[in-house]
Amino acid sequence: MQSRQLRTLARRVSCAGAVIPRAHVLPRLTPLQRPQIHCWRSYSSASSAISRNNEPKTVEVNGKEYTTDDAWFNVPPNVLAATSRKLHLQKDHPVYITRKIIESQFPQPTYRYHNNFDPVVSTQQNFDSLGFPPDHPGRARSDTYYFNKDTLLRTHTSAHQAQTFKANLSEGYLVSADVYRRDAIDRSHYPVFHQMEGARMWDRSKYADGAVANAIWADVNKLPKHDVVVEDPNPPYHPERNPLQEAHTPAEAEAIGAHLKRSLELMVVEIFTRAKTAAAKADPDYKDEPLRVRWVEAYFPFTSPSWELEVYYAGDWLEVLGCGVVKHELFANAGVPNQLGWAFGIGLDRIAMLLFQIPDIRLFWSRDERFSSQFTGVSDDLSSLRRFVSFSKYPACPKDVSFWLRPVSAAGGNPRTNTQDFHENDVMEIVRDVAGDRAEDVRLVDDFTHPKTGRRSVCYRINYRSLERTLTNEETNDLHSEVTRRLVDRLGVEIR
């Protein structure tokens, strides 16, 4: 895999309180925040009661029923069906294996593992508890799957942060979960993916005044050491670039940062050492290179100071995760004001794609034994981890669709700010709804605004390709015709 591809695979990672940027994703979201060939209906556990106008009024997800309303409900059947899959809990699945590798570096009982939180959460959990402003783009229906105005599918594992802090069941924790976002269609993005966030806390009330920093340093000294070169040229905090919180002393912030960095360095060394071992098994001519790690100052809304961790791998620097010292107000709002500590977030799908060299995220959802059998037994013997071997490459069938946007929308040329605007994610949802995992990617290839009328025209290229069989011309034409029909019916566009 080329270094540019590896960079793409590593970008959807998140940190407590904020997602690392990537294409077509929410700007600086929280996480701890983000990545098929099957018939969704064949295994869906989600069911709905349909009203006379064919709009579901209640939806069942994992045995629980939720009320919907026409103004907010936007969860398509394929996404509902995915709530039953829980890939991070399926033994020998690459996402499960990746989770287990990371958990091995955060041992119990210091860290408690939470892997079964329900994916349906309230807006209070997903947004309000983390301080999202009312007008934050992450709240928009164009980005998030809603059942009603108060209930949604979580967009990040941070939706469970406040409840985990409040429960205060352990000194540290890891939360792994499936998360959902309306997203682009390509080989590295999918509306359902998996995240892990972790945290480590200390309780000031258990120590004499000022002694908590010494206790944290004692815990740092208990951590294993590694021999990887780490570049960390910046100070523990900076008054402008990476400020110290008023609630923390300089000694506390420095100690927390040191514990955070050592802990996460050990994790990435474990992941990338296993990746290099798998690469050497797959390629007799593989040339090993010393692993290098560097810390980069960052900004996340809910940690300060904050950092991103990058790893030099396969000839390029890869962003792996985001992290930082948890802001005191998160602990205070959760009812544990004496706590202080750190948190991080990472995207499991992207790490699994890199670890196993899996080229297409749709493969994670495949029920084809040619895929799943390659990982049998790895969960029980991580030393047997090996790279994915492609079992097929069926031909693609690209088709274009060009259309004028509605003139009543701002994107279509109407300057009124209160008009319903066009959003690219709506196109993605229509393609997914029709083609499912037979849509490999969707790209904007032309964007034209008429110089006289101001009307806007766009052209999207849809690449149809199955991972399991060759699509017939008739089948592809039928899919594309249905996509075109729904674009007209649902978005009111004018086909060119």
From TrEMBL:
It comes from Sodiomyces alkalinus (strain CBS 110278 / VKM F-3762 / F11). One of its GO terms (molecular function) is phenylalanine-tRNA ligase activity. GO terms for biological process: phenylalanyl-tRNA aminoacylation. SUPFAM superfamilies: Anticodon-binding domain of PheRS, Class II aaRS and biotin synthetases. PANTHER family: PHENYLALANINE--TRNA LIGASE, MITOCHONDRIAL, PHENYLALANYL-TRNA SYNTHETASE. It catalyses: tRNA(Phe) + L-phenylalanine + ATP = L-phenylalanyl-tRNA(Phe) + AMP + diphosphate + H(+). Pfam families: FDX-ACB (PF03147), tRNA-synt_2d (PF01409). It is found in: Mitochondrion matrix. This is Phenylalanine--tRNA ligase, mitochondrial. NCBIfam families: pheS_mito.
